[in-house]
Amino acid sequence: MGVIDRIIEELRNRGFRIRVVRDDSIKADLNRLTVKVWLASGDYFPWWSNPLDMVNDLELNDVNALFVISERPYVVSDYIVNNLSRINYWFNKEVNVKVYSVNIDRLEEDLEDGINLVIANHYRETSNVTLKGNPCPNCGLPMTITYTSRYFSHRWGSWVNEYVEVCEKCKIVSHRLVL
Ligand SMILES: [Zn+2]
Description:
Number of helices: 5
Number of strands: 9
Largest sheet: 5 strands, mixed
Structural class: alpha+beta
Bound molecules: zinc ion
CATH class of the largest domain: Alpha Beta
């Protein structure tokens, strides 16, 4: 199975709806969250001279999060994050995209961890429930469960239940897996 197909399978495994599939990218939704997965693999890397071109080429204007899949994902991610902050300084324009690194050699495991982070970091967009949760470790008041799901974990080799719990007052967000 090709890399793109393996990514699609992992996104579907986590409940994402696949919207656009290209040779080197996928766009997908989870509730109100939109993510883009970009395969920055191989010899050619477009070192954009104008960071706005990067945003247009990667179509980052309508996505909340970007997964960078690469043999050296941290180098590529750093470059993209730097370009995004340049846009802020140079053009006074905010492109609000969080960037997540996935090593192509650990594709399923890294994607799983990345998706866990995305679901927690963007809990307002991913929210699928509003339930009373455990006491907040800081203030002791009940946290709000904003997301629950069940998926097959590559990391644990079994089905897991996942929960995102939030205390808005203390700015605490926890992502919990129960085997
Ligand atoms: Zn609290």
